[in-house]
Design goal:
This protein is α/β, with parallel strands linked by helices. The protein is 46% helix and 14% strand. The chain has 17 helices and 13 strands. Strand 4, helix 10 and strand 5 form a beta-alpha-beta unit. Helix 2 runs parallel beside helix 4.
């Protein structure tokens, strides 16, 4: 079998079979398929697309280039994926809540991409927390605690890591076929029984329109289901930050406040409850999403989810008393400044992407891959669409490392808020459900 002949087939719009895709992906890892050939393959897929069976075969082929975990546990193994947004710290609160409901969550997460925050970057603000543990520690914490949020290891879907790097520099990232395989090859390597995807749409999402979000959501559901994992998706709004924060340490603090009931952002609660309910139903823990929401809610209000989060942090090397004393451990920015709107009125529109980019400018994200992140910076106490600003309440608080940085970020936040006299209702938070289909 020759790589160039497989590439030629896809270049000419033909359908590739599982054996051919396995040959390409294994060859990419073994060095028998060159980066140039992988780039040509990606470009051929970008222009000609793939049929559903091809997407499934590519996903499985990429998954099988590394370790595929198996589990011997007394409950189902589940996970959640998000396409990324601003103020999206759902993973930090959902994983321990699910664990408290009797399922196991070995959650393989990522770092920030573009203007969106990364779960691993947030967890890196916790001293000692290991986001890249070995498989043995992942297994132990998952079994003992019920959840472990970690990053992709070198042994998990190595073909994806190589191919993504090639796509990133060959203008082939924006392919639903390749995006689907990239996401799912990592998730399915965790040996899941069920998966739910949170596909964002809006000005703070990669998929700005609901139509584009639906295309990706349907692809994720069909391909994962075709690969043997029960999967559904929820399309959610990202026209404003999901929580009232954006950054790393500030989002961890917000998550702990949420888990302990100190402060709960309603939008964060609603998305988390719906994703959790979907997963519990898919995993067979509850017969319907209504009962799923009740169980997730009970996990939060009883304190069980907070307890699991604390145990996970401790199990992965963090402080044993982190939940009780998080301010002792989380880095704090040397400069904090309240920001006020330039005019009075109602918040009519928020440039969510602009806020995400402002976090990067503050040092809370990467301009290039080698950048070091300042985990202390960001925004807190952000207002939402529809809120009345009377001049007395700030639109947010900037956390910065210098007065100059704080001033620049304050200006960006002011510019990101469109204020007017009319009350505009926020767009629906939950846009659409893409259900699992076992046919």
């Amino acid at each position: 079998m020759l790589a160039q002949e497989i590439i030629r087939k896809k270049r000419d719009g033909e359908v590739l079979d599982a054996t051919e895709l396995q040959f390409l992906m294994r060859g990419l890892v073994d060095g028998k398929v060159s980066n140039a050939q992988a780039a040509a393959f990606a470009m051929a897929v970008y222009f000609n697309g793939m049929q559903l069976d091809e997407r499934v075969a590519l996903t499985v082929a990429m998954r099988d280039t590394g370790d595929v975990l198996t589990w011997d546990l007394d409950g189902p193994v589940v996970d959640k994926h998000s396409t990324g947004g601003v103020g999206d710290n759902v993973s930090l609160v959902l994983a321990p809540a699910l664990a408290a409901c009797g399922v196991y969550v070995p959650m393989i997460s990522g770092r920030g991409l573009g203007h969106t925050g990364g779960t691993l970057d947030k967890l890196d603000s916790i001293p000692g927390y290991q986001t890249q543990p070995d498989v043995e520690l992942l297994r132990k914490v998952t079994k003992d605690v019920g959840c472990a949020i970690i990053g992709q290891t070198a042994a998990i879907a190595p073909a994806d890591k190589i191919l993504y790097g090639i796509r990133d520099v060959t203008a082939t990232v924006e392919s639903v076929d390749l995006i689907t395989a990239s996401i799912l090859s990592k998730k399915l390597a965790a040996g899941l029984d069920a998966l739910v995807s949170d596909v964002k749409c809006g000005n703070g999402a990669f998929m700005t329109t609901q139509e584009d979000a639906r295309e990706l959501a349907e692809s994720l559901v069909k391909v994962a289901s075709g690969a043997g994992c029960k999967t559904s998706a929820i399309i959610t709004d990202m026209n404003e930050p999901l929580a009232s924060v954006a950054g790393n340490a500030v989002e961890v603090r917000n998550a702990v406040d949420f888990l302990t009931g100190t402060h709960i952002d309603n939008r964060l609660w609603d998305v988390t409850a719906d994703l959790g309910a979907e997963l519990l139903m898919l995993a067979g823990v509850v017969p319907n999403v209504g009962q799923g929401r009740d169980k997730i809610s009970a996990a939060f209000t009883s304190g069980a989810a907070a307890e699991r989060f604390g145990a996970m942090v401790s199990g992965l090397g963090g402080p044993t008393d982190f939940v009780e004393n998080m301010l002792k451990y989380l880095p704090a920015a040397p400069v904090t400044r309240e920001v006020y709107a330039k005019t009075k009125g109602f918040v009519q529109h928020i440039d969510t992407r602009g806020i995400g980019m402002a976090v990067i400018e503050l040092g809370g994200g990467r301009r290039i891959a080698s950048d070091t992140i300042d985990h202390s910076v960001g925004f807190s106490d952000l207002v939402g669409v529809g809120e009345l600003l009377d001049g007395d309440e700030p639109i947010g608080v900037v956390h910065a490392r210098s007065d100059a940085d704080a001033e620049a970020a304050a200006q960006t936040l002011q510019d990101a808020m469109k204020i007017g006299d009319d009350v505009l209702r926020p767009k629906p938070l939950i846009r659409e459900y893409i259900a699992y289909d076992n046919d």
